[in-house]
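Incident review: delayed structure delivery

Summary: a single-chain prediction request sat in the queue longer than the usual turnaround. Root cause was a stuck worker, restarted by the on-call engineer. No data loss occurred. The affected request and its eventual output are reproduced below so the record is complete for anyone auditing the incident later.

Affected input:
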Amino acid sequence: MSQEDATGEILRAQLGKVYNDNERKLDSRAVPINTLGGAGKTIVANALHALGLNYVDAFTEALQDDGAVLPLAKHTDYRQRLNSYLEQNSAGVSRVDLDSICFFKTYSTLAELAELPVFGIWILVRDPRDLLYSDYRYVKDVWHEEVASAHSFADWLRIPHLGGLCPIDLWTYHFEGWPEIGGSVARCVVTRFEDLKSDPVGTMSRALSTFEIPVEGSAVRQAMDLSSFEAMRAHEDQVLARQGRSGEPGRMVRRGKVGEWKTWMTPELHAVFAEPSLWDAAEPYGYFLNED
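Output delivered after worker restart:
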């Protein structure tokens, strides 16, 4: 077994049965969203729900054969704090139209997704420096993860996590291969987090157009307004206030500042990110990590 296959086996085992059952349902009407935490998945998921489109979080929901989407109880807090899930929370169960395009959040690699009979692939990516720092702050401040709490960012970057990979290797493993693999898929969209922040309406409209989904510009604009940092953070704050948890540190909806790495980068951290395979994987997306 190759190292890549071994990593995939470890990753699938860590993600669990529900995730793997969901992934097996990816078919010719599915658009898997290839992403990692901190790349803008919450923005996109919220907007898709606001537009009334089909979306399944393969990690926190179980898709049934009849189209019903069952929320997993252990992720209730996560779902309540993100306003994209208000409708499902109030109804208990949502439903997707199995005859229409359905977007799936996945943790599969581009190479794995290219092997599946899907309608298209949506790559949601972010500068690895900002993404990994955002992830570190998230697991430390929200999850209170023991490993993150006990280590500096530089040390945390060197510790194996999901799939048995350290965070830098995980970013590379997850996003490497485009545009070679993307070019082999009939419909492939790359959405950079940075573009999603600077031009949310245009970026989302272009993605939906590629997947042949007709949506009025005014509807996209409204959906993106509802998915803004301000709107989603206000919702999360309201949820925590109702639960008497306003004083809790950390929020799931983070500010998502573009280029924040420039404020914390040090020679030590630059050396950690000076990984040739990471540079090679990032460059096709427009991230030139050898530049200051």
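Verification: Confidence is low (pLDDT under 50) at residues 87-91.
Action items: add queue-age alerting; document worker restart procedure.
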